[in-house]
Fold each of these.
Amino acid sequence: MNPRAAKKRGGTISSLLFVVGHPVSHSLSPAMHNGIIARLGLPLHYVPVDLPPGQLRGFLRIVRAGNFLGGNVTIPYKEDAAALADTRSEAVEVCGAANTLVVRRGKLHAENTDGEGFLDALEGQGWGRRYRRVVLLGAGGAARGIAFALGRAGAREIILLNRHPRRAERVAELLSRRYPATAFSGADLRPQTLREEFRAADLIVQCTSLGLRGEWENFPINDVQKTSRFADIVYRAGGTDLVRRLRARGVKAVGGLPMLAYQAARSFALWTGREVPGDAFLKLAIKALKLW
Ligand SMILES: NC(=O)c1ccc[n+]([C@@H]2O[C@H](COP(=O)([O-])OP(=O)(O)OC[C@H]3O[C@@H](n4cnc5c(N)ncnc54)[C@H](OP(=O)(O)O)[C@@H]3O)[C@@H](O)[C@H]2O)c1
């Protein structure tokens, strides 16, 4: 609810929520959260905060002392927010990245709703939460959150492929200690490795920032099996290039918008205690993306 709308309805804004990142002008989170807040008639407002580098510690000091219930954290502050928070969930401890902060009696608690939000989104597609062999492209904050959630859900094997393979190997080592029943491994992102790993994958998850702009050159699209499912966590109006091309080949593929909506629903519940279906957030995200 914007302040003018609140005034018109005779309401007042008692607390604030935020998304902090750099840049944040592209974020659909304000449209989703303010849409739900207006629908529920809550005295809250969600604001975007574009923070120049080096200022997160100072901003979080204001959040602790101010009129905030909490907020979201996006690129490039997910790791720093995890380190600067006063307490952390298990997902944040293991992944080292936070996408949600909750203010509790002047202290900041860090959460990561990306992984469970991703699984909620797959479930929303009728795909289920438990997989036999998953190939994850990337090893950044989002990939780590998703690998953690897939491991917790009982995936048998998770292979992380990353441009810097050592990073993928380190994540695999870390998660193997947490979930010994899941076989984690890490390797490079070269086309030949993708080809080999795609063969027996039942789920492929694209978690790199490639695809935000234009095409992924040399992606072995014809080696994705028709029996595999493909999830790109990046979203674009009309679908990412990979999602469009795979669907054209008859592969079941989903973009990142449902994940965005379902992780938002989980964050909203943490701040307000209100359980709102992820689909309600998704409808608002689709509407906002059309206006983008
Ligand atoms: N739908 C959603 O709700 C949702 C949620 C979170 C994130 N996302 C999207 O997911 C993407 C990743 O987010 P993140 O938080 O994980 O970011 P991050 O921590 O910065 O990780 C970026 C990942 O992309 C890889 N990468 C970047 N540029 C590359 C290139 N030119 N070639 C190959 N690999 C490259 C990095 O590989 P290296 O390790 O080798 O650098 C790393 O694995 C972003 O586009 C973000 O918008 C979507």
Note: The first helix runs from residue 3 to 8.
Amino acid sequence: MQVIWFKRDLRIHDHTALTLASIEGTCMPLYILEPTLWHQADMSQRQYQFLKDCLTELDLELQKIGQHLIIKVGDAVSILQEINESFPVSGLWSHQETWNSWTYARDKRVESWADMHSIPWFQHAGNGVVRHLKTRNGWAINWNEQMKKPVTEAPHYLKGLDFCSDTLPAAEALGLKEDGYHLGQRGGRSEALLLLDSFLYERGERYTKEMSSPSTAFDSCSRLSAHLAFGTLSVREVFHALEARNQEIKSLPPLAKGKWPSAIRSFSGRLRWHCHFIQKLEDEPRIEFENLHSAYDRLRRDEFNVDYFEAWKVGETGYPMIDACMRALVATGWLNFRMRAMLASFASFHLWLHWRQPALHLARLFVDYEPGIHYSQMQMQSGTTGINSIRIYNPIKQGIDHDPDGEFIRSWVPELKNMPKENIHRPWELSAQMNGYPMPIVDEKKARKFAADKIYSIRKNTEHKQETKQIVKKHASRKQTTKGKKVSDSIKKGGDKKQSSQGELPF
Ligand SMILES: Cc1cc2nc3c(=O)[nH]c(=O)nc-3n(C[C@H](O)[C@H](O)[C@H](O)COP(=O)(O)OP(=O)(O)OC[C@H]3O[C@@H](n4cnc5c(N)ncnc54)[C@H](O)[C@@H]3O)c2cc1C
């Protein structure tokens, strides 16, 4: 019997492990709900809610091809052992998972168990992330080649067996607390397909321009991130849909193309970044916990201000754009890139908090939490990679640029509902109308200068440069050409040039 172990690949389409296993004979499609994983500090009720939607749909899809999803609750090794005792397992199949340190350690235990029982474990890489990568040279070209391969067809039939499922525990039983989330996205593949379609044919035309403002981004961004994180869609499926749409747009007369060519270019780059960042964690798992560049280990070591952290977490820093974004994130589980970067930068620079605790808090709030992207971005926005330019987002300027009339702020910070437009980004200048909204917890200018001085004093150091070279060699994206066409991780000239100068480039 073949066990197909579903992890973060909750679909039957473009699922190589499932399709190949189905050819081998009797199959058990299995999902293991691991309570210990859900007890980790980066896990949350909102992610669990999304997962449950995904599992419900996956089960329905599997039933259509002959075998329902078998859900077991417990430790992966114990569950596999129990299954093996009832139905000897001839092969274990899964995708190759690059997730957090806990899943890595669990996979090591499963590997030992499988070896001990001489059970082959076939792990399939689906997103262009390479295990045991020797060099970053050629990475983007290889990624493109992987994505261009045809998507794997779902099996038409699964020869199943009778094995009873456990009931999924309630979130509370896993220690997952209610946290203000009430406007979130629905999980499951059907929702993912609707989002993909509406993004590529309706919502996405102004993506390049509208991705930066939280007033427009909720609608103009694809909103596919949680689906990619849970694998209801594969990156390759999105890549193919994008290519098809690109061909359609190319065939339109120039005036009918509108802003689609720029949108397609911007989106295509970001799809590759998704995997580019996961590759970093695959290559260097310690970045979940430690600074990428060790020179920054001296910074923010013993200075964690708990009061600042608490104010940041609940959206009460006194900076309206920060607080509106945090409150929106708490309620919806999503935020656009620029505002995520601003929240992280404010915590790390203005509040001078080490990035690890803010990273865990944001991880819990993001339904789309993807460790590979998350920890790389947290470090990038905290200035600890040593290889990126330092960007300290000014929250007042971000407000003025991306919410000029203060509508987004007013909708999430009701205390400022009646604050005039002229004062909305500096409400302390009209303190009589603050309506209980707090005064700024730090002085923006002074805090920014303090942080910049500290960071730049380290960057100037010659030892810093030595280590930087090594990091660039190991992790940085390369500009390469394939058949005369540039394939790199950086944004090409054109529509989204503005973002590139404003910090939305990967490294
Ligand atoms: C501090 C911080 C933490 C982040 N943590 C996460 C995370 O845990 N999970 C996550 O998916 N994204 C994370 N991002 C990246 C980015 O903000 C989200 O991918 C994006 O906002 C998701 O919305 P979307 O699907 O509508 O994106 P779109 O703009 O529609 O982009 C499509 C897809 O491209 C990928 N993508 C887009 N931007 C980036 C980027 N800058 N880096 C890598 N991949 C990208 C994502 O998979 C996304 O779903 C983080 C960014 C920052 C600054």
Note: The chain has a mean pLDDT of 93.
